[in-house]
Amino acid sequence: MTGHEHHGRDHTDESHEAIRRVTTTALLREGVRNVRAHPEALVALVLSGALVAGIDWVTLHGAVPTTGYEGVQTGEITVAFGVVVQAFSRASVSPLTLVGLKPAWFAWAVGLQVAKVAVGAGGAVYALARLRNVEPTAAIAVRYAVVVAALTLFPWDVTFEGGSMIIGIPLIIAFTVVLVRLFALPGLLVDGLSITAALRRSWGRTAGHGLALFGTVLLVGLFNHLLTSVPVVGPVGSGVAAALHAGAVVVFLRRTSE
């Protein structure tokens, strides 16, 4: 009788260990399964991508100097992975470009960027909330949008040439570490945590899972780069990649729950 009870505890412990195990394969496979179970999450991100594509088209054809997304057509391979879940944009306006603009053009350019942040954050919050089975609130959406806006202003795309490659490799490693350690951030924000609390919780919760999360970042980022490279409608495809990103985040949070 005692032996039977001991075997039962071992079996239960093994089952819990299997549920909590984090691998790249598990995150992606179950992430896809989650999205298929909640197609409304995919629809929300694809629609937000379509709206971002429309805003990009207006931005690229406007008078304000804009930088376009360099996709696979240039022969370069990029890991297009963001700290938060969102459909990638094909057009970006440098804050320095806004200096000296006429008030009307300044307001127009800023308004387009604000609209893009709102659309991207809104789609992501709804999708993650559906996958996490939580109620999205205005406060959650605002916090998420603040993070998206802050990341939009931060120069994540860095090019190194010649001797600068000496410092380029350490910076790439540092960026990768940040992406991995903040992998859980979007899900924690949608769970209702404050920005600072979500940052701390994600940094601690991802400890010990670096290899699995790095593989996820790499594969989702490459997939996103390929889809975002499609002319005009790239953000729509990026919405699909964002859904995979969201699904993987939700799986990670479930498997590492206490």
Number of helices: 10
Gyration radius from CA atoms, angstroms: 20 Å
Structural class estimated from helices and strands: mainly alpha
Helix content: 55-70%
The beta-strand count equals 2
State the separation between the terminal residues, measured CA to CA: 31 Å
What sequence of helices (H) and strands (E) makes up the elements? Answer: HHHEEHHHHHHH
Task: Explain how this protein is built.
This protein is mainly alpha-helical and 258 residues long. The chain has one domain (39-255). The chain is built from ten helices and two strands, in the order H-H-H-E-E-H-H-H-H-H-H-H. Strands 1-2 form a two-stranded antiparallel ribbon. Helix 3 crosses helix 10 and helix 4 packs across helix 5 (138-153). The longest helix has 30 residues, at 103-132. The radius of gyration is 20 Å and the shape is globular. Residues 1-19 and 157-164 have low confidence and may be disordered.
Question: Can you give keywords for this protein?
Answer:
two-stranded antiparallel ribbon, globular, 258 residues, disordered N terminus, 10 helices, mainly alpha
What layout of secondary structure does this protein have?
Elements lengths: L1 H19 L3 H14 L1 H22 L6 E2 L22 E2 L10 H30 L5 H16 L11 H17 L3 H6 L4 H11 L4 H19 L5 H22 L3
Antiparallel strand pairs: 1-2
Task: Give a quick summary of the entry.
The chain is built from 10 helices and 2 strands; from the N terminus they run αααββααααααα.
